[in-house]
Amino acid sequence: MAKDMHNKVWDEATLTKLEVFKELVFEWLNIVLKAMEKFENNKEISIYDLCCGCGYDLEKNEGSPLKIIRTLVARKKFNKNLKINIYFNDKDENKIDRLKKIIENNNFDKILLNKNIFINYSSCDISKYKINKKAYFNLIFLDQYGIEYSQKIDEFMSRGTDILMFISSANIKRFKNMDSFKKYLGSKISTVSFEGMTNYETHKAVAMYFKKMYPKYHIGHFSLVKDNKNTNGLIFFSEHRKGQEKFLEAAWRVDPENGEGNKNLHKDFYKQKDSLFFDEKFPTSKMENYKQDLLEFLKDYKSNTEIKNFSLDMGFLTKHTNKILKDLEANKEIERIGGKEKAFYLNEKEEKIKIRLKR
Description:
This protein has about 350 residues and is an alpha/beta fold. The chain is about 40% helix and about 15% strand. It is built from 12 helices and 10 strands. It is globular. The protein starts with 11 loop residues before the first helix and ends with a strand.
């Protein structure tokens, strides 16, 4: 039986998960609302929280539905012709009733209605849930307790849809050979080796397995290590590079050191703030490893768009890659075709330059 997370005080990992989700909603709205300005018709977007719960934990920490609402309430300007639908679903009808009372008692429903934002409630098993196909842009939060709803990714996904899924990597590591897990994750999950992996590597391995399951989607991941050392995590799916980039911006805002977890997952001695050897300027091992991967990638000519995509797939933002490239050019370690010196055009959609390591 799954434990009910709303009948206890949430731990630090859960609170971090909610913080990542809040930042993602903020970033997602920024890019989607700007994109909607070009639309003449179909001015409708949707946000789904399909395991929304009752709104609070036992200490009144706010859950994902209230994170969504507060982000929308705080935003001052919306296009008057834009309709926003929020869908709150939980298979426990009592939780939906409690959430509805919280929202009504705080007048959130009336405040949002004045902004042309509509709240929809349902109590449905996710296996039977259907997405409203009218909206072009959709953000779906699948905060599931188990793994059975991971198969809904393909069904829910469409051109303008982004999905954030919470999953227990610790359970996958432990039970990957069981038929009940293979039923939902495929038989090849048993071939994934977790032997000797750190907490970070465990969830990353699960995320990369999902990448193989859904190769046409762009992936992001964020590890959540609980107090008992079990590793859970978030996996983000998008058909658009921009969606992947916005997830990473949210992740790096929550974890400024590595953009990937609620703990120092690489055990960088110089980056632990309670250590006598803490050095804010000392590079993380993740950054050092990425630099080596980037050098390997640049052994042949790569365009600015290829480099950006590589950066995102490796979990880094363009600002991180720009700094490495500038250092390489200053040390005369790379050569380029096109473009101005010190400019790498990583935020351009079109191909502007090609660079490689000097031979």
